[in-house]
Write a structure and sequence with these properties.
- It is an enzyme of class 2 (transferase).
- The protein is α/β, with parallel strands linked by helices.
- It has one domain: Rossmann fold (3-Layer(aba) Sandwich).
- The chain contains eleven helices and nine strands.
- Helix 6 links the parallel strand 2 and strand 3.
């Protein structure tokens, strides 16, 4: 397909092209961690200088998608008719990588991102698109049918919110979807501070990453989210498994090092606690 579509995204929505670039390059490799023809189709159809903006492609976003896919497949094995809500989905093509004929997929993203997504991916009864911020819970909560298991994902999203916004969103989801699952990635405070500095994070001389106000150490996620929800919540880290090179062996070793594994960001998942019996709720 010729590159004929010129994307006009900016700020945070433009980051969907960054992740598309890295996923597509991973999908194009014989030794890549993804098989994703739809991603490659979209990548080649867009007239955009990926390398100029983002530099050399690297595997992290492809690995991240693989981690989310793996956890979602486990969920769907247990709940074939479950509901998957992908917050800030952009041009992610997860629904094409996972066979789930009974599931309901809900993609939530800003209007400009949904408009570009629908140039390539049409919504239907099983795959719904909602043009709204993930923070606008009134726009998407009611789209989730009651009585079905729920798996909510946020790839490359939470770091673009302030901590108070993250807290409000997680608390609202926990109240609305008790027993549901939430999986997201996060960055470390040092990278967050870099993006907020006067110079910002210049990914290349031609691309400045948007500000990322929320950075958190991995070891502080569990107590932080537990405090937000007013009761203990287990937060499970998911190890990045690089498909090749020295990081394939180095990262698992670092995960076992108490000091080192607290420094970087990463991927994690949690299950929202059930609603406690009346009279046992704690004030928040």
């Amino acid at each position: 397909m010729p590159s004929t579509i010129q994307p006009t995204l900016a700020d945070v929505p433009e980051t969907t092209l960054w992740t598309l670039y890295n996923r597509a390059n991973e999908a194009a490799r014989a030794d890549g961690c993804l098989r994703d023809p739809k991603c490659l189709e979209i990548y080649h159809a867009l007239s955009y200088d990926y390398a100029r903006h983002f530099g050399k492609a690297e595997p992290s976003h492809g690995i991240r998608s693989q981690l989310f896919d793996d956890k979602l497949r486990i969920f769907l094995d247990r709940h074939p008719d479950g509901v998957i809500v992908n917050l800030g989905e952009g041009l992610e093509t997860q629904r094409f990588r996972i066979d789930a004929p009974q599931a309901l997929w809900i993609s939530v993203d800003l209007p400009q991102s949904i408009a570009l997504r629908e140039r390539f991916i049409a919504p239907d009864a099983q795959h719904r698109h909602i043009a709204a911020s993930a923070l606008d819970t009134a726009a998407w909560f009611d789209a989730v049918p009651p009585g079905r298991a729920v798996f909510i994902t946020a790839q490359g999203l939470m770091m673009y919110f302030r901590e108070d916004e993250v807290a409000a969103l997680i608390k609202a989801m926990a109240r609305r979807f008790p027993g549901g699952y939430f999986m997201f990635d996060h960055i470390c405070p040092r990278l967050s501070q870099r993006t907020l500095s006067h110079r910002g994070w210049m990914k290349t001389p031609h691309y400045r990453a948007p500000p990322m106000p929320w950075g958190v150490r991995r070891d502080r996620l569990q107590p932080l989210i537990s405090r937000w929800l007013g009761r203990p919540v287990a937060v499970h880290n998911v190890t990045f498994m690089f498909p090749r090179g020295p990081l394939r062996w180095l990262v698992p070793l670092l995960e076992k090092t108490p000091i080192a594994n607290h420094l970087p960001g990463g991927v994690c998942w949690l299950q929202f606690p059930p609603i406690p019996p009346m009279g046992t709720q704690k004030a928040q």
